[in-house]
Amino acid sequence: MLLDLNNEKMQEQTNHIIEIKHVSKYFGDKVALDDINLYIKKGEFVTILGPSGCGKTTLLRLLAGFQTASEGVIYIDGKEITQTPPHKRPVNTVFQKYALFPHLNVYDNIAFGLKLKQTPKDVITRKVKQALRMVSMSDYEYRDVNSLSGGQQQRVAIARAIVNEPAVLLLDEPLAALDLKMRKDMQMELKEMHRTLGITFVYVTHDQEEALTLSDTIVVMSEGKIQQIGTPTAIYNEPVNSFVADFIGESNILNGTMVCDHRVKFANVEVECVDEGFGENAPVDVVLRPEDLYIFPLSDSAQFAGKVTSCIFKGVHYEMLVESDGYEFLVQNYHHFEVGSDVGLLIKPDDIHIMKKERICNTFEGKIVDENHVEFLGCGIECLPEQTQGMEPGTEVEVNVPFGSVILYDDEEDGALTGSVRFILYKGNHYHLTVASDWDEDVYVDTDDIWDKSDHVGIGFPPDSIRISRKKMN
């Protein structure tokens, strides 16, 4: 039995064409990639998805060899290529801006790599014609690339990459410059190309719909870290944290309490769910997809009674906002309800997704300054004397501050320290903000005020909100 398990494990390892192990990338003091571990199977279509600045293009450039890892190792097809130059790697890259040679026609652009390898002329001709057929451009081989549309130029770029028969095709937001209809058409063509070629595709995009449409596996990234790896269905239906739930599609994300197994309370209503193992009366995040909420004229069968405050036609469905007992729900439905309509909402137990809270309050390491001050985040912050009672100056402590007690100021000088808003999550009746402080540590804030991403703010901590305890020694 043990032998069978070992053989199965070895087989799984040999099936990985790409292995990225503990890879980090630094640009000066900035961490672009933080301890990335990723394994990609042969023939898989993997999409690396995330917002701008999350590290996805940096990861692709490490695979291509245009940059080198600061730490860790990369294997392709069983060989370590961490320091191998780009032209010696079994990969080809398709760029967002195509990078075609303007002085060469379509044929010569596609044949360029083969000519560098001194491939025989008859072989070049055969391979170029085959690549042109793959991208549906058989009649364009002698056309000037400058005369082509954006979609046609993208096809030429893809043909130039696949003609070299790489083990891995890397695609860096290749459809971003195309209009919506062309992008949709090219998505289908890329999916068909992948099926026909049978080679491994590693695709980078910030477009969630594109990732869900194309991929066998999605890798969601944020702040240089992998947040979740899974199939499109798993990523959409079972997000592991609030970032993934918010980034992939539309979501209602609300604070909740897991009353007990199969019972959860949120928006002041207790309902049945299918989740278990969270404990009793445990704080959780509740995710409801807007298409899973049933909306109907108000009746006794409603779990939530509310009023429609907005209704927008989206072409296929209506998108409505419903206010219920101080909470706002986003609902998508084929039926139209006028603004001001009294409606009921209902959600099935298996359409409710429960996530464990990532944190329940701000927690900082600090030390006592005197009986009225504690130092954390690089600042001496006023606190109540009863919190420091029995603690000498210099005592190492843990400082806890509730999310809702942190104050943000328009005028940075009004705060004890400053920072920038880097993530905003709407929780149904308030906003949950992640603020990157100047001390390089995040501060989490619950607020009713509306802020924009990248706003520079002052950060304040009311003395009566600060809770101090001695630091636990390991």
Q: Percent of residues in beta strands?
A: 35-45%
**Count of DSSP helices?**
10
Largest sheet report? 6 strands, mixed
- Give the end-to-end Cα distance, rounded to a whole number of Å: 40 Å
Give the structural class.
alpha+beta
Low-confidence stretches: 1-12
> How are strands sequenced across the largest beta sheet?
6-7-8-3-9-10
Radius of gyration: 27 Å
Mean pLDDT: 90
Which percent bin holds the helix content?
A: 10-25%
- The overall strand count is 30
Shape, please?
A: globular
Distinctive features:
alpha+beta; 6-stranded mixed beta sheet; disordered N terminus; 5-stranded antiparallel beta sheet; 474 residues; globular; 30 strands
Give a structural overview.
The chain has 474 residues and is of the alpha+beta class. It is built from ten helices and 30 strands. The chain has helices at residues 2-14, 56-64, 106-116, 121-134, 150-162, 180-197, 208-214, 232-237, 242-247, 385-388, and strands spanning 16-27, 30-41, 45-49, 71-76, 79-80, 91-94, 168-172, 200-205, 217-222, 225-230, 252-260, 263-266, 269-272, 282-288, 294-297, 304-313, 318-324, 327-333, 342-346, 352-356, 362-370, 373-376, 379-382, 396-401, 407-409, 417-426, 431-437, 442-447, 456-460, 467-470. Strands 6-7-8-3-9-10 form a six-stranded mixed sheet, with helices on both faces. Strands 13-12-11-14-20 form a five-stranded antiparallel sheet. A hairpin with a 2-residue loop joins strand 11 (252-260) and strand 12. The chain is globular, with a radius of gyration of 27 Å. The model is unreliable at 1-12 (pLDDT under 50).
